[in-house]
Amino acid sequence: xxxxxxxxxxxxxxxxxxxxxxxxxxxxxxxxxxxxxxxxxxxxxxxxxxxxxxxxxxxxxxxxxxxxxxxxxxxxxxxxxxxxxxxxxxxxxxxxxxxxxxxxxxxxxxxxxxxxxxxxxxxxxxxxxxxxxxxxxxxxxxxxxxxxxxxxxxxxxxxxxxxxxxxxxxxxxxxxxxxxxxxxxxxxxxxxxxxxxxxxxxxxxxxxxxxxxxxxxxxxxxxxxxxxxxxxxxxxxxxxxxxxxxxxxxxxxxxxxxxxxxxxxxxxxxxxxxxxxxxxxxxxxxxxxxxxxxxxxxxxxxxxxxxxxxxxxxxxxxxxxxxxxxxxxxxxxxxxxxxxxxxxxxxxxxxxxxxxxxxxxxxxxxxxxxxxxxxxxxxxxxxxxxxxxxxxxxxxxxxxxxxxxxxxxxxxxxxxxxxxxxxxxxxxxxxxxxxxxxxxxxxxxxxxxxxxxxxxxxxxxxxxxxxxxxxxxxxxxxxxxxxxxxxxxxxxxxxxxxxxxxxxxxxxxxxxxxxxxxxxxxxxxxxxxxxxxxxxxxxxxxxxxxxxxxxxxxxxxxxxxxxxxxxxxxxxxxxxxxxxxxxxxxxxxxxxxxxxxxxxxxxxxxxxxxxxxxxxxxxxxxxxxxxxxxxxxxxxxxxxxxxxxxxxxxxxxxxxxxxxxxxxxxxxxxxxxxxxxxxxxxxxxxxxxxxxxxxxxxxxxxxxxxxx
Length: 708
Prior knowledge:
Elements: H1 6-22, H2 27-48, E1 55-59, H3 64-77, H4 81-84, H5 86-91, E2 94-99, H6 106-114, E3 121-124, H7 138-150, E4 154-161, H8 173-183, E5 186-190, H9 204-207, E6 214-217, H10 219-223, E7 230-234, H11 239-245, H12 252-255, H13 259-291, E8 297-299, E9 310-314, H14 333-359, E10 366-370, E11 374-379, H15 381-388, H16 392-424, E12 429-432, E13 441-445, H17 459-473, E14 481-485, E15 492-496, H18 505-555, H19 562-571, E16 581-584, E17 589-592, H20 594-599, H21 639-658, H22 678-692
Parallel strand pairs: 2-3, 2-4, 4-5, 5-6
Antiparallel strand pairs: 1-7, 6-7, 8-9, 9-11, 10-11, 12-13, 13-15, 14-15, 16-17
């Protein structure tokens, strides 16, 4: 599906076709026009992003500019590199310093493009004690530089980040610039935070990037411009070296790369560019302020005032966790428990990120896995807002979706340990520890023929779990159930999904165990019945064959001859009864059919017993779904069901009260004018005596048929 590129996107795309037409001009006119386009675009970019007296190199691949800068640094530091080539590098090996938070694969790309071995790369770790854990450790970098100088190596280039690829943190560029000037190292800066240089207010850490030797900008994503090249701004005085390094070219086609960006800058203007970048920063600030008010959400932000990237994750301390340990933990079990908790939290955050991406597609969220924090969700509007058209309403919708998903996450975390204990204490069930599953847990039913030591495919177990999954889904509960193989195993398991409300775990586990046991027993009964029927058919065939032989012996050989047999049967018919066999499935035995032919009716065999329902029939209130805790006044009851239930109870109480003899006051019959007949008098007196009789001696009044 083509994205909504807008009018400014059409202008950028028009630049490519227009460049093809321009390339057909006269050489002299083409040279003048391309030079003007290149110089104007370079001047505008340097003024917008506060990079004075800089040159620009336009490239399609974002990392290509850094490779050209490394080549320029090699030619600048090694004077005989053009003549001697590798021999110069062999005597004094160059070193390129990269941050541990740099983009993955950047160092390998540079070595492949420059023809350098991988030992020429030096990875600088990030801070571990002071400062951000995503910033380069300056003190450790200085130690690495001194060690390389002592070994006879040449520190060549340092790549700093103004907004790391993961969380958008900025290195201490001012301190790194001082260190590079001290040891003669080329400083290159890249990152998404460089876009804020176009704003009126810029943080000091990002503003220091204007003093670096080179920087790489990506105006395409920032401004929502498709097919626009990236730009590398640099400062160098020797045009011959820049030509050798490939940063400048005399070919008009290379200069025409700037034409789409030249047209786009003309269309947007300075105010349009600043407005788009400012809008993206305001979106990140809006999300950050809203997430601060949400519980169980941790925000990883370096600068709360001007960070254009917001990284957050869900967290919840386990119930009963004490910050001060009361006992010494076991060394072997503590790391595994911490690792299991880390993986479980990562699974929940991965589920939350996927849900938010589906619910708010205009947010441009990204789910990423950090080395220290784990799985987090990143919101970087500078890279996505201009393309997706993200607005403030989308941010509010995103926060609302986060708040709506938090009860599901917290409830699931609270029920996990209870589910594990219930499954562990239930016979026939095995708890499967799968930290990558975001639901309540994973359980497997161990049937009688289950080989616990083997991890191979179990057809019988798979059949039982398939039937169990079907039965659980037919219960129409709020839980979701799935079936899949256990991690690193081929055996099937039942995966219990997220819980959005208080769930009765004991009922859930018992239902799983009893249902699986019923399915196993029914499958065994079917197998036994199949074997019994097969043997019964074989036995019936043998008996019928014997009966035919006996009939031949009784009738004689002459009756089997076609013509003679008909004559004999006409003179002396044979009174032979029809013999057959019926198979009683209940008793598993063969019976004769003589009774059926004599009485002209099939005999009623023994009625098979009803299959017992092993599921505990829990008394549920009207409207209550399965696996819900039955609390008085629970919200699980709907208003209609609650009222109807109360009315039924009132009717029963009223009817039972009407049958109480103490409350009966029978209407006495009026005296007959001519005197009361003796039968009626006796009847009336008996009724009165019965009403005055004590309750313990009173016979029970039978209930009407309607009240039963």
